[in-house]
Amino acid sequence: MVNLRNTAVIYRNYCIEAYDIGEIGFYFSLVPWSKDMFHYEGRTDSAKIYYLPKGFWVGEDLFGDLCIFDSFDTICPILSLCDIPAILFGHEIIYLEEVEKTQRA
Length: 105
Known about the structure:
Strand order of the largest sheet: 2-1-3-10
Distance between the termini: 14 Å
């Protein structure tokens, strides 16, 4: 059986040093930590594949940044709740389900 659900690779990044102390810590992103720069230092901790809800997809915004879009082409931010990635859809929080390793092969 072929699974036709959309998926996304989501990276768990860690900001070690930042200009604003509120930016330090773990966060989820569609892109890995790219490089350290002035006042910022960090690393990518891991990358996993997650299912996106029906109607959601990954694409580029007007600036070329990867984002998750809903069926109305609205950008849905990625959240980190209890160390689980989730997306904000309006006022609803949707937790993302990890693709099982056996299904990746």
